Amino acid sequence: MSNKRFAFALHGGAGARSGRDYSVAEYHMRELTENARDRLASGARALDVVEYAVAQMEASGLYVAGRGAAPNSAGYVELDASIMDGPVSAAGAVSCIRDVVSPVSVARRVMEATPHVMLSGAGALAFARAQGFEEVADPRKYYMLPIGVQEKEVTDRSHGTVGAVALDVNGELAAATSTGGTFGKLEGRVGDTPIIGAGTWADSNVAVSCTGTGEYFIRTGAALAVAYKTKAGASLSQAIDEVLADVRHLGGDGGIIAVDSTGRIETIYNSEGMKRASVDSESGVFVATFD
Questions:
Q1: How much is the pTM?
Q2: pLDDT (tens digit, 9 = 90+) per residue, 234-252?
Q3: Is 280 in a helix, a strand, or coil?
Q4: Of the candidates 6, 53, 90, 188, which lies 20 to 30 Å from 73 by C-alpha distance?
Q5: Is 267 helix (H, G, I), strand (E, B) or coil?
Q6: Are 182 and 188 in contact (CB under 8 A)?
Q7: How does pLDDT run across 39-68, given as a tens digit for each residue?
Q8: Closest CA to 239 of 279, 206, 196, 195
Q9: SS3 at position 242
Q10: What is the CATH number of domain 7-288?
Q11: Which residues of 158-177 are buried (b: 16+ CB within 10 A; e: fewer)?
Q12: Closest CA to 84 of 193, 195, 200
């Protein structure tokens, strides 16, 4: 039964650096968020909306995901993504997949068409090909530096991710996340993004997407920790603050976006900045990179 309330948030990564211009990415995030608002208001499923938003960010080249990913230490791009459907606790992910246009859509197909949660590397690519997903025709021409990233930084462990969370008018929650990983990462490196419970989580109470230095989000079980803390009685903001404090204690930084079953949205970070946008059925679109 529809409750007519909806909420949506996205992030374009917590690797933003002060003094740089992210206005192009902010404009893009506003457009996506307005589109997500219209889709949710018209009755679209949260799962469809988060996949749509993340796929658009992957294709844009504005963020460290999809087209905006940088090569690993072996000189080629490896991509990670995941998606989770809260009402049924279904999840799909791909890691170290090469040269597909939309890793998040491949992740969803893993969720819906296989008995598995994650496919990796050559197996993930073979699956994507068998399912007819679009591939990158010429990697040398396709990939590009995202907004706010300089050429000299592509080997310095800079990080970035995209993600989206949503509550639809039927009370369903979903989350999705995608990344090209840290710049200069070792071949085969997997961060938190494709790991369910680390970079992405959705259940009947909350949907979560993380961005930052993935190793620390894995070690804190960040996305699932937020969910468990809220289930234990913490507010959504308190839960995120505590998890980010744990990440900071280990030496990492980043951000977390989340929406709960009441429509509460939080977009919190402890890095210099986080590209982010949000909207709900009771308020207008909010877009920012820094405080």
A1: 0.96
A2: 999 999 999 999 999 999 9
A3: strand
A4: 53
A5: strand
A6: no
A7: 999 999 999 999 999 999 999 999 999 999
A8: 206
A9: helix
A10: 3.60.20.30
A11: bbbbbbbbbbbbebbbbbbb
A12: 200
Distance between CA 284 and CA 172 in Å, rounded? 21
Residue 97 confidence (pLDDT) above 90: yes
Other residues' Cβ atoms within 10 Å of the Cβ of residue 232: 8
8 A C-beta contact, residue 219 and residue 207 = no
Tokens coding 14: 């917590």
Give the whole-angstrom CA distance, residue 116 versus residue 260: 27
Q: Using CA atoms, how far apart are residues 238 and 246, in angstroms rounded to an integer? A: 12
- Which of these, 176, 201, 203, lies nearest to 94 by C-alpha position? 176
Chain-centroid distance of CA 123 in Å reads 22
135: β partners = 100
Domain borders along the chain are 7-288
Q: How does pLDDT run across 193-220, given as a tens digit for each residue?
A: 999 999 999 999 999 999 999 999 999 9
Tell me what percent of the residues of the chain surpass a pLDDT of 70.
95
Report, as residue numbers or ranges, the catalytic residues: 161
d(CA 232, CA 190): 30
| Cα 106 to chain centroid, rounded | 14
Q: How far is CA 184 from the centre of its chain?
A: 20
Tokens of 160: 């970035």
CA atoms within 13 A on the CB side of 161: 32
Contact 63, 160 (CB under 8 A): yes
Helix/strand/coil (H/E/C) assignment for every residue in 80-113: EEEEEEHHHCEEEEEEEECCECCHHHHHHHHHHH
- Whole-number Å distance between alpha carbons of 70 and 146: 9
Distance CA 213, CA 137 (A): 30
Residue 260's φ and ψ, nearest 5 degrees, are -110, 180
- Residues 209, 259: Cα–Cα separation, whole Å: 10
